[in-house]
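Exam review. A common question shows you a sequence with its structure tokens and asks you to describe the fold in words. Practice with the pair below. Do the first one on your own.
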Amino acid sequence: MKRGFLIVLFIFSLIEVSLAQEINSIPKQIRGIVIGGNFSKIYYDGKRQTAAFAFPATGINATFQLKNKLFLGSTLLFSNAKSQVTPSIIVRQNVAQILLGPTLQIDDVKLNAGFSFEYRTAPSLQSVTESPINLMGPVGEESFQVNFMTGVEFYLSPIFTFCLNGIIPSQQVNSSSIQFGLKYRFHAARAEKIQNHRQHVKAMAKKDIVLLKEGALLVRLKTSDNTIVALRNAGREKQALKEEKWQLTQNQKIVKAFKTCFDFAPVYFFYSDKSNQVRKGDFEGIFLNEKLELDSTIVMSKQNVFTAEYTAIKQDTFIQVSHYELEQIGDFQSLWVPRYYGQPNFGFSAFVVKNQNFEQMVEPFPYYARTNAPGIQKHPEQLLFGLPLIYFIFNSSYDSAVEALNRKLNAYYIKSQ
């Protein structure tokens, strides 16, 4: 009996391991490990003894989705079992068992039922006193039992669930137990997926740098219309004129910087109120000449379109892949999704390259060049008080920032060839 059960355990463990290594053979499966403890009532001396706590109980499990809310659960579990015979004597066994049965999910809870196929070693007695001879046994024979199993699982996180099982004896001479523990769900392809994801991002960056080289860069200029209108509505005409003049000067400097310091791709300029037309690919009558006037004679023939503007750098979260986790997709269903850890969001302003939908590009694409030019021009005193290093750390003018961006793009383009 022992040999036959051990053969069954060996075959089952091979199946579990192979399922844990297969990625695509059974797509709707959840695999993991289990660790916990139990309270057992071991049948000894003609009765089930008083339950006692034993630790650890460890194993592996695989759950297969049969229907939307119906699963088939299987667990291979190895555990210690103890029961109290007298205040100073306990009976103990080692148990190997297969838990098998259907599972029904209800929101964040799973209800389990099925069978427990158990191999139990011969029981032995152990003294819980300080006696030098504290082990007395074995005092029985090994056994094979088939019992009923019922249980419940509670969702804790995408990778952890708390499980509680009750083993109900099918015969008078069988043992019973209550098992509890944590299930950790894992995925064998996480490292491979992360690597594939990074390779995909790098490939997209190389593709995008070529598209930009062969396409056009549309630079979006601000109008500050809302601020100016608000100032005038408030009767602050002087401040409105000052803001209008300031924004015009900044736009002129940006145009000059790109005209003189950028040669990676053709450059066109448009005001921010034409952004929706750019998104739709409608470029008719939106471009500005050197005087920042709309000029219908300026026509763009390029198909690959990228945009750029002076703005705050958003946190780069796309490329920083840390790991994959199971994410609950309602009703206890899970899906492996990537988790990202982006660069700190310092809020620095820069010339930022974006796609046609004004979505910031991501590393390794060289998508920005920092500058504090407007801040220095508005508050030159910061070079003397508080933050003198800003002048040296960041590009101090639009020209130097655009030149730095142009240099980064050219270098990455050459590297990508």
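Now try the second one, then compare your answer with the model answer below.
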Amino acid sequence: MIKILKKKEKILEYVLSTIFFPLSILFVLFIRLIRPIFLIRYAYIISTRIGHLGENLEFYLCAKKEKLFVPKKKHLDIFYLNTEVSNKFLVKLLKREILILPRFIMHPVDKINRFFDHFYDTQDIHTIGRYKKYLEITPKPPWLNRDIYHFYENHGPQLKLSDNELNQGYLLLEKIGIKKTDKYVTIYSRDSKYLKIKYPKIDWSHHDFRNIDIDTFIPATKLLIKNGYKVIRIGNIVEKKMSFEDKNFIDYPYTELVSDFMDIFIQAKSNFCISTSSGIDCITSMFRKKVVFPCLCPILDTKSSTSNHLLGYRHLIDKKTGKKLSLKEIIDRKLGFVFYDDKNYENIDLEPVDPLQIEAIVKDMISIERKQFFKDEDFKKEEKKFYDLFNQLPKKHPQEGLYHPKKLLFQISKNFLNQNKWWLN
């Protein structure tokens, strides 16, 4: 059924693009003609993945407020989507802040303008964030997908839910036993099912190291419930239910509430999220909620620009010796982007995720939430040691440019460091 719908959408787009092709040519000529007095720019939105659809545009809106990468002359920015959209409600929110025109008009405009550049090069001046004249490896909004400018720390959420949407969301939450006054936490544990169903022709196995069994989060779920939180497991296409039942735990993907709207609302109003790191947790960050990443790998995938992020890590194992690698060894062997930078890591393995380590790190977040988190002198020394070592890692991703700001604001879990003191030696 999904394949049939996709095929129909592509056919419709082709027909409409053909009909409007003359208009697209005229539009390109028009924007080039008026460029000296008024600049019209455009950009394609990576709408197929929720992280890029949301966070990339969040950074664009924050940059616009700071007048960062904004043309000095009068201008208009236009966006268009991919044929597929990962979350239609998120697009609805974005349309309140940016101009999104139909793809069947703007995609041909993009192609035609690039063709005309062979004869009169505009240096990509009409493409938002892609100026050839100033191009560096690190992209600019809306292509930027790392908060290297501390947007999250310096600005509030750029997208807003209306009063009607808030009321609707709270009414739907009540159907699964969560009142407006209840505290609740979301859990996201990545598996392969979503991408296999959405994009079956693509081999996603290079991401399999990020998959973690949802049952690994059972101890943390019990801890949260014991401490007065309700827990919602998020995601809309998942491999299996959590092997745990409680009136205060909701396995959202298996409820009748699953929708693009609720995918956003649940995260927007949560206390915090526990995530194995994926595009979906970007929604939590976009609404300036805290996120716990209790078993992150690789270490340089850390989202380091905001104090709302609490981290713990999975350990790397040398297959030849069977020993876990210290952070210093990871630095010396250049394994900061292990599994991501297209090198051969056949001698490196990952330690299995420890459910009790996740539980311990979540304890730290509960203390932070309650403003009871205390840094004693011993921890401050260990924390400084960790940040000093982290700063020795490269700040740039080999393919995607700058990944980390100069000032690191993320928090390292106290319980994680206490349980892994050897890691800093």
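Model answer, second protein: The radius of gyration is 23 Å. The chain has two domains: 2-145, 154-424. Full marks require stating both points clearly.
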